[in-house]
Amino acid sequence: MSNVASNAADLVETYGDQADLNVEQIEAQIQNLVDEYLLPVGEATRSVENTICDNAGIERSETPTNDTEAETNYDAFDPTPVEEITEEGTWHDLAVEVVQLWSPNSDSMAQVGLLGDETDKIKFTIWEGTEGIPELEEGQTYHIQNVVADEYEGRYSVKFTKNSQVTVAEDEEIDIQSSETAHEGAIVAINTGSGLIKRCPDDDCTRVVQNGRCAEHGPVEGEFDLRIKAVIDNGETAQDVVFDQEATEAATSMDLEKAKEMAMDALDTTVVADEIRAEVLGKYVEIRGPVFGQYLLVNDATFCTGADDDVVAALEDLVSDDADISADATPAETAA
C-alpha cells in the first residue's frame, strides 16, 4: 500500500465515527494536493486532516493524531529507487550515498553533487537559505525525505526544500557501481555553448540564459560561467563531454575573470570560445567523470604527449576535415 493510500485509510479509521468519510475520496484529495500543488505526502495528508476536522467541527487538538508519533507516521519513510525518478515535480524519499560533492557554480547554491543507490545516480542541489538541512558529507549514507524532482534537457535531478528531512544512516551500506567513466582521445570539436556563458540567477535554476532569457523564468540578468562542450574521439568511439568552470580553467590558460575581460574588450563573447578552441582543439586527452545522458562531465583531464602517432595523425586529419566543413557551412548549418 502506498503512503497516500495508507494515510487515507488512517484518516478514515481515526475520524470515521465522527464524519462521513470515503477512503477513496480521501485518497484522491491527498493525491490531488501532491500532484497539483506539489506538496509532500505528509503535508498533503495533514491538510486533508485539517479540512476533515473543520468540516465536522472536530477540535483537532483533541484527536489522537495530534501527537508526535502520529504526525511522523504521515511522513513514513518510503524510498524511491533513483532509476525510477522520471517525472518532473514529483516528491521522493531516497536511501542514498553521497557519491560526489562538486564546487557550486552559483553563490545561491549551498551544496551540489551526486547521490547514488544500487540502481542509478542523480544530481542534487541544496540552495542557500534552505533551513534545517545539514551539510552532506561525501561517502556518507543518508535517508532523505521530501526532495522534489527537476528535469533539464532530459536529465533528472533532485532539489531539497524546506520540507526536506535528512537522517544519517549510520549502519547502512549501499552498493554503488563506480561513479566515474574514463575516456581518451583527441578533442575533435568544440561545440556551440562553449566559452563564456550566463546562467539564470534564480535560486532554483541554473539554466543557460539565451538572448537575455531563461527558458523557465523569462528575462533575467544572468550570472557569468565558463565551460567547454566538446567531442573526444579515439578513432573507435566519440564521446560528448562538458568541462565545467573549474575543469575549463585547469585545461586552458583561461579563467572567468580573464574571459570577462576579453569579452568586454572585444564587445563579443565568442572571442572566449575562439581562444579555447585554439588552445585545445586537436589535443589528445585522458578524462574521467560521471556520465549524464549523452555527456561525460569532466572531473579530471590529463593532456597526453605519448599517444600512438598513427592514431593522433588520423585524428588530426579528422579535426582538419571538420574545420574545413565548418568553414564552408552556411550560418544556418552551423547553428544546427
UniProtKB/TrEMBL annotation:
Does the keyword section mention DNA-binding? yes
Q: Which UniProt keywords apply?
A: DNA-binding
- What protein name applies here? Replication factor A
Q: Tell me the superkingdom of the source.
A: Archaea
PANTHER family per the record? OB FOLD NUCLEIC ACID BINDING PROTEIN-RELATED, REPLICATION PROTEIN A
| Originating organism | Halorubrum laminariae
Which stretches are annotated as coiled coil?
none
Question: Carries keyword Lipid metabolism?
Answer: no
Q: Which CDD domains match?
A: SoSSB_OBF
MF term (GO), any:
DNA binding
InterPro entries given for it? NA-bd_OB-fold, SOSS-B
